[in-house]
Amino acid sequence: MALIVQKYGGTSVASLEKIQQVARKVCKTHSEGNDIVVVVSAMSGETDRLIGLAQKLSKSPSEREMDMLMSSGERVSAALLAITLNELGTAAQSFTGRQIGMITDAVHMKARIQRITGEKLKEALTDHNVCVVAGFQGIDEKTGNVTTLGRGGSDTSAVAIAVAVKADLCEIYTDVGGVYTTDPKVVPNARKIDIISFDEMLEMASLGAKVLQVRSVEFGKKYNMPIRVKSTFEEGKGTLVTAEQKEMESVVVSAVAFARDQAKITLVGVPDKPGIAARIFNAVAEATINVDMIIQNTSAGGLTDLSFTIPKAELLKTKGLLSDTVSKVGAKKLQTDENIGKVSIIGVGMKSHSGVAAKAFSALAEGGINIMMISTSEIKVSCVVSNDELDKAVKILHDSFDLGKPVKKQ
Amino acid sequence: MALIVQKYGGTSVASLEKIQQVARKVCKTHSEGNDIVVVVSAMSGETDRLIGLAQKLSKSPSEREMDMLMSSGERVSAALLAITLNELGTAAQSFTGRQIGMITDAVHMKARIQRITGEKLKEALTDHNVCVVAGFQGIDEKTGNVTTLGRGGSDTSAVAIAVAVKADLCEIYTDVGGVYTTDPKVVPNARKIDIISFDEMLEMASLGAKVLQVRSVEFGKKYNMPIRVKSTFEEGKGTLVTAEQKEMESVVVSAVAFARDQAKITLVGVPDKPGIAARIFNAVAEATINVDMIIQNTSAGGLTDLSFTIPKAELLKTKGLLSDTVSKVGAKKLQTDENIGKVSIIGVGMKSHSGVAAKAFSALAEGGINIMMISTSEIKVSCVVSNDELDKAVKILHDSFDLGKPVKKQ
Questions:
Q1: Cβ separation A54–B82 shorter than 8 A
Q2: Structural domains in chain B plus CATH codes
Q3: Is the confidence at residue A352, as pLDDT, over 90?
Q4: Do A69 and B54 touch (CB under 8 A)?
Q5: How many CB pairs lie under 8 A apart between chains A and B?
Q6: What are A35-69's pLDDT values in tens digits?
């Protein structure tokens, strides 16, 4: 008898048949004596449909209104799943973000969870009812406005709810079997990982692996809530994301992550004076654009070049923001490169093994791949390469660190 | 400078183009110096789509869940209209039933409004923002559950909100030009009525005219809130529904209403003893089936026949409910007739004119139409006739009382 939070994404509730399949899974776990909170996303495609409607009506729709609009999708899937569970004889109730007391800040479309009061959930769980919660949404306490947590926010809803109700486990059901050493579409012998640390998963999510939303992993780490990622449609144990354990260190590199569709912006001939970088990045940060790597070359003749990467989708907006700044800080010009991608190796074992970065650079060089930018942390090494060479770089690194081979039990 | 509540139904917000058309209307009224609360229904077809999904998943979906499901449709249209208004330069905010404090009882799918706190509306109106409210929905204060007001409930939302914010007028925009003397599809020379009393409108709405929901008219009458019914798509003053005025009495009959798809149930050979009718109708009332006319023939040999009409859609359910009761009360059998309709003449002037009913019966008799059941009130006469003869009956009565001719100004 455990208390389990299960989250089902949009592809898992994409049709009535799939909702019925999810309902049968929930009923089975419930009939085994577990209490369950189910968190659902909107039916696959629904959020995009709603955004499409709004964009036809306005170039920059009010974010408050977008949240009102988008939050309707999860209400529909939550109600439909509760209806199906009741039909199967398992007492269930649906709840909105407001009803479970999901209190967020007031930043529409990117709200952050502040706390979850959760009284209604606790009441319903006391009666052993299945609670079906509309993910992705919360409420700004001061104004009563509906907020949403940003793309993939249902993962974060689920882990935060698991923490709030003191669940034993948070299961994230998705359309893949777990977390892989890299994307099997790019590297066919990519291997499912049985267990991975929060820190590694955080890096992977940040660096482009789409299986879990970054903030959900942060929550899991902060409150030590184990997360199991598994497939809605196939049997299998999936991947357990959990606190770091000793045996994890024996694996030097756990996975290769990558992100396509990056863009590089270079400000050429920037005067090398204190405060210039701050002015540039303040302008970008105010628009909540996520700057990734930043590189500043050493100065020559009092001028330097400053490069940074951003998601390609933000390129136009960023160029617009910087057009003023470029002349204000006295830079010569602004160059952009839309043809870049990022590949990263990740592993907690890296901390205790030297030469991992050097091995990666050598492998890429042997493959004839030019590295444009590098950034490293204790547990990852990231390289920016040409987008055209990205797949090849992923394969090379996956092979170099033997990620396709089963992990040796020690 | 007035405070106006405008309600737009599902056909008025059926597409993005129509939402833009509505937005332009709202902007115009706003730019003329008026404060506006707009109440919207779900986009035409959306509520039926959602009900269809639920019915595929369950024969009798939980009514609590149905309310959660259906209330999403109005959120979408409210957000889309607010987005469009902002795009046109008119500051607007959307609000859910909860956000405006629309407190109802706990009867899901047929909730009744208890009160409207309306603080958020008043705040937004103080800033002269247009408030766009999701109609049809409220909240049960005790549980925090979402409730809906039943089909056409957005009319009721609108009038109740108009009362709560002390509006000068409630405008109900729809796909027809106003209230007609009868349905122009049946009688081509049906005439638009300029002004009509709450009582007449109440009878018309109860007796089958679909232009306004009965409860919205009850609200209007109770709080003396004038309601103007007009077309979203055409110019024109529409019809003003208001308190009775002296000149109204000069018109004996104002309109002919009718309802198709009625059914008659007859319990044959019921023992003529006290309490029998109560037992029968308690059984029906508990299922909240709306019994319309009831007729009990005089007793012969201690047995009587008891007939009543209901909407045809409720026939199966009612027969099921009564199957036990028939034998318990000792009735001989239960007969049904699905081929009936109801035609009614309505007018406050009837009170002060005798012979109106007689004139109607004569006209129908001359047309060769058999009257099966009759019921009357101070301001209406209703007759049940064969469904096949219903259109003919409507035409005959419309002609007899000269409703196609312009009203004489007196």
A1: no
A2: 3-175 (3.40.1160.10), 256-400 (3.30.2130.10)
A3: no
A4: no
A5: 115
A6: 999 999 999 999 999 999 999 999 999 999 999 99
Between CA B9 and CA B34 the distance in angstroms is 21
Among the partner residues B16, B64, B72, nearest to A56 by beta-carbon distance? B16
Cβ distance B26 to B190 under 8 Å? no
| pLDDT tens string A370-386 | 998 888 888 999 999 99
- Residues from chain A that touch B79, judged by Cβ atoms under 8 A, are 54, 65-66, 68-69, 72
| Model confidence band, residue A299 (pLDDT cutoffs 50, 70, 90) | low
| Token pair recorded at residue A7 | 């989250």
In whole angstroms, what separates CA B102 from the centre of its chain?
Answer: 20
Q: Do A82 and B71 touch (CB under 8 A)?
A: no
Which regions of A191-302 does DSSP assign to beta strands (E)? 195-197, 227-231, 239-242, 255-271, 294-296
Q: What is the average pLDDT across A380-409? A: 90
Which stretch of DSSP H or E encloses residue A394? helix A390-400
Which DSSP string do the residues of A54-117 spell out, in sequence order? HHHH-SS--HHHHHHHHTHHHHHHHHHHHHHHHHTT--EEEE-TTTTTEEE-S-TTS--EEEE-
Q: Who among B61, B98, B120 is closest to A83 (CB)?
A: B61
Residues B246, B262: Cα–Cα separation, whole Å: 35
Residue carrying structure tokens 């003919």: B392
Order of strands, edge to edge, in the sheet holding A294-296? A294-296, A303-311, A255-271, A333-346, A380-386, A373-377
Rounded to a whole number of angstroms, the distance from the CA of B28 to the nearest CA of chain A is 18
Tokens of A252: 């030097």
DSSP 8-state secondary structure symbol assigned to residue B312: G
Complete edge-to-edge strand list for the sheet that includes strand B380-386: B294-296, B303-311, B255-271, B333-346, B380-386, B373-377
Chosen for mutation from B76, B86, B140, B142 (greatest number of chain A CBs closer than 10 Å) is B76
Strands B380-386 and B373-377: antiparallel
Q: Looking at B38-151, list the stretches that DSSP marks H as alpha helix, in order from N- to C-terminal side.
A: 46-57, 63-70, 72-87, 119-126
- Chain B positions in Cβ-Cβ contact with residue A84 (cut-off 8 Å): 57-58
Which residue in A358, A61, A201 sits closest to B84, CA to CA?
A61
pTM recorded for the entire structure: 0.84
Chain B residues touching residue A120 (CB < 8 angstroms): 144
- C-beta atoms of B61 and A94 within 8 A: no
